[in-house]
Amino acid sequence: MGIDLIIKKMGLISFFLGKKPTIIEDSFFGRMHLMEHRKDASLSYFECYRHFEPLDGPIEICLYGNIGPTQKQIAFFKKIENQYNTIEDAVATAITKEMRNWDPDFRIINFRNEFKPSFLVIPHCNEEPMSWEISFFSTSDPHHVFNARLRNFELEGIDMDG
Description:
Elements: H1 3-16, E1 22-26, E2 30-35, E3 45-52, E4 57-64, H2 71-82, H3 84-99, H4 111-114, E5 115-122, E6 131-138, E7 145-151, E8 154-161
Parallel strand pairs: 4-5
Antiparallel strand pairs: 1-2, 2-3, 3-4, 5-6, 6-7, 7-8
């Protein structure tokens, strides 16, 4: 199970138990909902949406922390946007390899048309190397989500849900 599914489940548990999340307004990320982890504050995170330049639209974000985003996290988000082409190339190669396990003729013609970034996990950004994730859904098969795991800007692996 990818980190994004675990995070979403934690959010649903809080919702059903009646705890309202703390909401902050941040000048960079906008409205952020704090999903507080009572036993371990390092597992607390914010949920929000922000415009993602490579998508030219909003992306859902999980940002670890409990007092608001740090300047390092903002800089990291900007770096992801700036290095997106490199990330995209690595992810396209990994998705092709994964999909060829089921369809030997699978190929991606235009990654940006066929796969859309949908979810981004931004770590605390306190130490190197930084582990983070970005998820993509397939526009041709919306039942499949591909979760890319990265360490700094090197792809470590890809998981497919659906």
